[in-house]
Amino acid sequence: MRPVHRLVLLSALALLAYLPAGRAQSRPYLGYVYPAGGQQGTTFEVKVGGQGLADDAEVTVSGEGVMAKMVQCCNPLGNRELSLLAKQLSELRKKTPRKASKSSPPPPTDPATTEMAAKIEKLLREDQRRPACAAFRGVAFLQVTIAPHAPPGERELRFVTRSGGASNPMVFYVGQVPEHTRPAMRTAPRQVLGKEAQALRNRPANEAEERINLPCTVNGQIASREINTYRFTAKKGQKLIITTYARQLIPYIADAVPGWFQPVLALYDSDGKEVAYDDDYRFKPDPIILHEVAKDGEYVLAVFDSIYRGRNDFIYRINIGSLPFISSVFPLGGRVNEQVNVAIRGFNLPTDSYTMNLNGVQPGLYPFTLGNKHQQANHVAFMVDTLPECLEKENNDNPSRAQKVNLPVMVNGRINKTDDWDVFQFNGKANDTVVAEVHARRLDSPVDSVIKLTDATGRLVAFNDDCEDLGSGLNTHHADSYFMAKLPADGTYYVHIGEAGRHGGDEYGYRLRISAPRPDFALRIVPSSAGLRPNGSAALSVYAIRKDGFNGDITLTLKDPPEGFSLGSSAPPKPVKKIKGAKRPLPAPPASILPAAQPMARIQIRTSSSAPKDPVNLRIVGRAKVGDTELVRDVVPAEDRMQAFLWRHLVPAQELKVLVFGGKSNPTTPPRVPPELTPEQIAKAEAVVKAAEAKGRKFTKSQVAGLARNIKTMYAKGLLTDKFYGDCIAELGYVQ
């Protein structure tokens, strides 16, 4: 076959934009996933907004029991593409038979024609030239299947493309109760000053209020100035739990203030009287309503943004019903290799106490919950440590009644009333260094702690209110306290802990560590995914969160890496001298070390030609010496997220996903091969070329090939019929 190297068409054709084949894309970005979860044992459609989305993308969901596959990708279209698809859709509609009359049977339909028309309609419907946020102008539709016995809870959903690698993770939940999902919004258009009404969503009347049956999880998106309402029936004495997941789905929105969707809940009875309201729960912006129903009847739940903002990424999941809910536990942690009796407070729980066996459990934070395979309560944090533990004993609110403790110690206590202070006494020696650290807010306790250290005369030695912990990525108020102080003399000392807002109650629990310094560190790696070529490398940033004065070197290594992966420093290797008569040796990769006192370093993940072509999850560990003890800590994957134009947070992820470019995808259906042009179409193309040459119009080979390539791409995606494809190629004056 030979190409005819000149283009003849209207001048508008020359404006058709195209991407050269093989051009590398940047890392895919996901702006939202809706709905952000589903019930066990169901299959449903999910809409994703983002950038760099591709039809051949692989969709991965962490954990077991959840499968997701691409159905259709709706990336932004050019003017010529829109024109061609609109013309193709018009021709397809002419082929669609009209509805049957009463006297005649329904005419036959062509499934292929119906499917193609539906795909084109979706593409045209989702195309938005001026989106409210360019970060999710591209749209993709997925089919998600959750197995009946898939473990409930939080997962991570990602896109993986062969040219861009793995995307950022998006939170995706596996639920246990029936779900109700509102229709997905179209991409919200940008609002123009003075013409805001033109960009507002006009919701159909049948979607204004929706009826649900309890228990239920409702999924919705909030548009600008919009209020979503749900009507249900409840009975007297029923203990309703209404929990919201919004900021927990998309923690930070960079171009919005305060930096996240701020949902508000209001509950009304059948008379329209407000019976419950919440705009946050304790220190968390996602609201929760705990309400005991006063009378039988219908109730309406309203959901809206606190200042009536809205767009596609203002997504929520709300659980409604007599569901189990844990409001607090005490103590908030325990010691390794011991049993801990935990008192539990909440609603609709099977028990108010639980014995935790910590034999063989490693120190750290663990999620704790109650329930059964049908209904599981929310998760709360539980801390495990190696220090000796004790319970706070009242009344210890001043130095004269201080509770005596021996160091080191982990105290489990409560600020159990308004303006309460707890005081602990210990003996110290001159020049000893003492650390006092509170874990409360990081364990979901509402305590905003204040701590101070005084000597026997009452003189203040150390004081702290808030101490920033970069390891708690979602916190915006680092309310836990910390100080490290050198004792001025031998004698008796007192550690005081109080609540900055002078609040208190049974749920105001804390863990207070008083000990000598325990040098330690935690590690975060950003971003949580990487893409690299065979025999190539990718650079990532590792952040060290140094604790109790630790300033040593940290050596980073891969843990049980797949074949073909290695780790190295981002610094260039030192040159190796060439030895006469010998082959030039290759320099060994430098060690991956985060130097002493340095908060961040760049490292490289390297691959060989033997690296697997499927996405893999890598694990990296950091090692450091403290005296004669070697500390080994996992490197936690994270995303660097911006809040409200300025503040940045390291948001933890579940996986460090890496893809080696160049692997071939395995399509589930054979590729759609363009047909040969008919003799009539070839004759038309040649005639058009001759007419163009007579007028003196000449175009380059690349222009012709590029435009033809776009038409072939649309055909391969199943958007053009054989005849329409051939006619378009003929109009270009291009013969294969």
Describe what you observe in this structure.
Among the domains are: 77 residues, no CATH class; 119 residues, Jelly Rolls (Sandwich); 61 residues, Immunoglobulin-like; 130 residues, Jelly Rolls (Sandwich), CATH 2.60.120.380; 122 residues, Cadherins (Immunoglobulin-like), CATH 2.60.40.60. Helix content is 10%, strand content 39%. It has five helices and 47 strands. A hairpin with a 3-residue loop joins β7 and β8. α1 runs antiparallel to α2. The longest helix is centred in the first third of the chain and has 17 residues. It is globular and about 105 Å long.
Low-confidence stretches: 1-24, 572-590
Annotation, overall tally of beta strands: 47
Q: What's the number of helices? A: 5
Distance between the termini: 5 Å
CATH structural architecture of one domain: Sandwich
**What best-fitting shape do the alpha-carbon axes yield?**
globular
Helix content: 10-25%
Mean pLDDT: 88
Strand count, sense and barrel status of the largest sheet are:
9 strands, mixed
* Percentage of residues in strands: 35-45%
Helix-strand makeup class: mainly beta
What is the CATH topology assignment of one domain?
A: Jelly Rolls
The CATH top-level class label of one domain = Mainly Beta
C-alpha Rg (nearest Å): 31 Å
